[in-house]
Amino acid sequence: MAISPLKAMNGERVVVLIFVLRVLSSLPLALLPHALSLSLLSLFSLVVEIRVDNSPSLFKTRPGASSGIILGAVTLPTVMLSKLIQLSRAVSLQQIEIGELEHMTMQFWAASACSCGVLIFLFIVTWCAANKKNPHFSCSVWDAKFSLSCVILYSVVCCISLATISHTGFNTALKLLWLLCHGFATVKLIQHLLSTFPFCASIGEANLVTSGLVLYFGDMLACTISKVCRLLIPPELVSIRYGIKRSEIGIVIQVVLLGLLIFSAVFKFLIHLWEYFWGANNSESRERKEIWRSLIFLTSLGFIMIAVAPSWMMIVLDFDVHPVPWIFQFIFSEPFKRLSLCIYWLVLIYASVLRFYNISKNSKIERILLRKYYHLLAVLMFLPTLIYQPKFLDLAFGAALAVFLVLEIIRVWRIWPLGQLVHQFMSAFTDHRDSDLIIVSHFSLLLGCALPIWMSSGFNDRPLTPFAGILSLGIGDTMASMVGHKYGVLRWSKTGKKTIEGTAAGITSVLAACSVLLPLLASTGYFLTQPSLSVSAHFDLQKDTGMVTNKSFPTCFHLEAFLKGKKFIY
């Protein structure tokens, strides 16, 4: 018997839908097609999640976790739509070019296509599994008709929206093909992820990770194609999709991640090649083979990161300086502040690891609670840096992500002499959500803090946006886990472990932190140091009356003036 979506609603699904509705309520009329597409995507994901949760286990997902399909499907499109709302204000204020808004429009549709492709895949899999179990299965016909209607309407809205930013029908067709490639690549990648790393993630988490990877590296691929094959691509596509200005730090981080992606594929190929030709020779000792593997690892890593990836950056992105000297030049442009921050970070990391590593091996405290102390450590490390050295923190997050990726490759492949040591060290901080195949907890914390900062680069008229990850993970998630573990009784869903008490504690703690942070930012002059928050060209302070005349809606200065006791004339 089919289950009605209204009857299957639980607290977790209601919260996600309220979050989506809050974003949709802020949309201008110009973004009405995007609102309609996100609404259809939300309804479709709700139907798919209900079907998957009421079907036998079809994938090897993380035990004890809810599927999280609706959350994983709508997160990226909703974030992109929020950025579109922000950029639409910037266009009306003439602070950015229209090309940047059109680029973000393509990013929104690409993220939506990734989620839609995964949802179609999940629906087909559950449908086939149900029909195989019962050949006379007919109770989900309504679900099929409703889902098909959502997909068709979504496709029509997507075509109309893309036609409005395209000059020709051929240009629109190319963009639609590009979106189809995003959806297909995401489906293939999530299949590979769930089969290669079983029991490591829920379906929603896997969807979010694969969609983000396809979106990020798809942008790199398109940049490369548009540069190398410029004559084969219509100029409109190149100028709209990839003509935006990129920051130097963003380019350096992008080339580092691209280099590590290429390295992982090349290293795997070289290892298989070496084992095929020389691995059969058992006369060599095991230690000698490990040394050869380490030499292959170091040689291929050094060559790709020093020669191949920087060459791509210089040719495709027109970056004239090698990234290594550029990084040193950037650090030593303000040596006292930035080197002092590095020393401060190293001292905190050393003291924390020395303290909590021994506790994790001997204490009976649950590791999920013990790891929350590292969330508080993230607040101590990143919050002061974000206020006083935000650009340096951008680069530091990229460097930390690169180090984490290299260490994880060393751990997985057991590269001598660090592989086993790294594995033993990381195992002290794992719990049921990690596995021996891959450990993702440190990546989750780092990316959770870094992504809001990276995505708020460029125009940003909301002062707390860069702090969203640090506050929600460092303070909100920590309080939610501790309160929920100790006092939680009411659960959001039957399969999940999240409680209403923990959620309330997390929300309250973040609101309290914001109430403390806002006056601190105003007193340090943080708002005026950010380019998009600068108000020198938009406001006229009337010193005699203490009045502020609003000429162009820079929200952050409103906040700062309010905290300083000013009045506003709208």
Automatic annotation (TrEMBL):
UniProt cross-references to InterPro entries, sorted A to Z: Polypren_kinase
The membrane topology of this protein is: Multi-pass membrane protein
Residues that span the membrane, as ranges: 106-130, 151-170, 253-274, 295-316, 336-357, 369-389, 395-416, 437-455, 467-484, 505-528
Please tell me which top-level EC class this enzyme sits in: transferase
Into which family does the record put it? Belongs to the polyprenol kinase family.
**Any GO BP:** dolichyl monophosphate biosynthetic process
Enzyme Commission code: 2.7.1.108
UniProt keywords (A-Z) are:
Endoplasmic reticulum, Kinase, Membrane, Transferase, Transmembrane, Transmembrane helix
An annotated Gene Ontology molecular function: dolichol kinase activity
| The organism of origin for this protein | Gossypium mustelinum
* Highest taxon, organism lineage: Eukaryota
The UniProt entry's GO CC annotations, sorted and at most eight, read:
endoplasmic reticulum membrane
**Compartment(s):** Endoplasmic reticulum membrane
Q: What is the recorded name of this protein?
A: dolichol kinase
Main subcellular localization, coarse class?
A: endoplasmic reticulum
